[in-house]
Amino acid sequence: MSSKPATVPPPDAEEPENGITRNINGIPHIYYDGYWIRYYTPPEDTLSEKKRLIDALTKRTFHHTEAGINTPGEKLELAREAFEREDNPQRKRVNAAMLAGALFNRATDIFTTIVDLEQKGITITRDNALMAQCSKCFTEALDLSKNVLHHSGEEGVDELWGEPVKVFTMPIGDYYTSRYRKIAQAMREIDLIGNTLKCTLRIHDSFAAAHPLIDDFVSIAKKECEILRTDMGYYQVWPEFVADGEKLTEFLAPIPRGASSALERHIKRGTLLLRGGKNLITWIANVRVPMPVSTRSFLERCEQYRDSVT
Question: Of 50, 69, 126, 178, which one's alpha carbon is 20 to 30 angstroms from that of 14?
Fold first, then answer.
């Protein structure tokens, strides 16, 4: 199976409209904002399907964020009390993240109860007190999510926290559409990082062998960004993604014989830049949303590196 994603139509073709679907290599794809993205049919728009989606997205959110904030819903009052009592700004940020986690879990606990009642034949309307409390918890958690960092410590990924809220508040089909748009944005960011990295490292011939490695990793990273873990193709995509990433991590640019100490330091800095780009692409592919703060910081590092030899 080829791992190269179909990202743009042929040069002589008209730009497709967003939302158009097409089979590419026998696999359904949907077009959004310049990218053909692997398409998955939305499930039936029921409360039980919403619960399944919210549960999966909640686990994914905690997986990609800093440790220690997956506070159980039953600890909500304790988490709120600790947050309100804390005065130290650094510690208060962490308390806010822990409170966000507790609110998130309380909301999913309530929604689980609502689905259980529905399955017993008890209808819960949108204006029911349980629904209102669930919505309030989700909304407050989303507001506090700006205090939650990615597990790398690089920046917050509050867009992840917004996804379960979207599932709760909008039809599942509309949520899927919003995901395709976010995946397209993430793919564009991955392309930008890869292209900037290659342009930056062209300063030295020592990095010539890294260019095809960057291309391969960018290509498979976009596949990782679009594929679901329940897809059988994931068992080909994930190993390739890991292996291609390892090639970049292990790459050592050769230092020319007789190189000055300044040149040697500069090539070593370029190697660190290569690894930093690889890490950032990995994070974006995994979270499947853009990381604009981290990307902007990385692009600035690339610019500083280029300026240091011009």
Answer: 178
